[in-house]
Amino acid sequence: MQTTPLTHNDIIQMTLRVGEDWAIAHARRLLASAWNGWKQACSGWMKKALEFYESICSIFCMNSFNFYGGNTGFIEHLLQHLKPGGQLCIGSEVLSTEFTAEQKSDPPAVYAFKLPPPNEHVDVFEGDFKKQHTAIWWRDLIQSSGLMQVEYGNELEDTDRIHEELVRYEYENNIDPFDVQICLDQIEWGITHQPRKTLFVLTARKC
Known about the structure:
Blueprint: H1 8-53, E1 56-62, H2 65-68, H3 72-79, E2 82-95, H4 101-105, H5 124-127, H6 135-144, E3 148-155, H7 159-172, H8 177-192, E4 197-206
Parallel strand pairs: 1-2
Antiparallel strand pairs: 2-4, 3-4
Helix pairs in contact: 7-8
């Protein structure tokens, strides 16, 4: 049988095809090896992350707990990462009394103001002040969860002085003039009205 001799170009093309097939197979092996290594690494990282989260000995929330912590469901979620005997500490603005039904339907202007652009759409009363509650309310919520033993939960005695010093500092350093004016209005309003803004600290230990 007569065969056609291979040309130099045929040999080059065959060599390229063989090389291409080898390169693809080698790349697949490398990718598979890298993927397996990545999965093992991720598994290790996740294990370490879970071990970390399950070994937290203290959680501290500053002026933020009212945005997401007003129910026992969240407390249960939070405490699953706290080791037994671990401590929760909250420092936050609260109210001296709860809002009345009338105030909830028609909030005082000092608690229902409009933020400057680009946040003018934010409902400050519904999103913040309505969720602040009183020091007693927060203490009772956490204690009644049965998950923690409250060790301390009271208003600070020098709240007014702290607020005044904060406003003075912001004013003297030209920090957020809008907030300075709002705070001054709230302090003045709170002299003769309720509720007024106050501060509290709570510490509790996981049962």
